[in-house]
């Protein structure tokens, strides 16, 4: 059960990192 929670947290962290990276790149594209 511990590994299941760890895997879920890892997927959430990965999704948040990709989303924030895309948002940052889009923000730079709008600025320039």
How is this structure best summarized?
With 32 residues, this protein is mainly alpha-helical. Helix content is 94%, strand content 0%.
Mean pLDDT: 92
The rounded distance between the terminal residues' Cα atoms is 47 Å
Shape: rod-shaped
Largest sheet features: none
Rg on CA atoms, Å: 14 Å
The percent range for helix content is over 70%
| Strand and helix order | H
Beta percentage is under 5%
Give the uncertain stretches in residue-range form.
none
Which class do the helix and strand fractions yield?
mainly alpha
Query: What's the total helix number?
Result: 1
How many strands?
Answer: 0
Keywords: Membrane, Transmembrane, Transmembrane helix
Transmembrane segments: 6-30
What does this structure look like?
Keywords: Membrane, Transmembrane, Transmembrane helix. With 32 residues, the protein is an all-alpha fold. Helices cover 94% and strands 0% of the residues. The longest helix is centred in the middle third of the chain and has 30 residues. The protein is rod-shaped and about 45 Å long. The chain starts with a helix and ends with a helix.
List the helices and strands and how they pair.
Elements: H1 2-31
Keywords: Membrane, Transmembrane, Transmembrane helix
Transmembrane segments: 6-30
Key words describing this protein structure:
0% strand, mainly alpha, 32 residues
């Amino acid at each position: 059960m511990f590994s299941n929670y760890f895997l879920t947290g890892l997927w959430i962290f990965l999704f948040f990192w990709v989303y924030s990276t895309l948002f940052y790149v889009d923000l730079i594209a709008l600025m320039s």
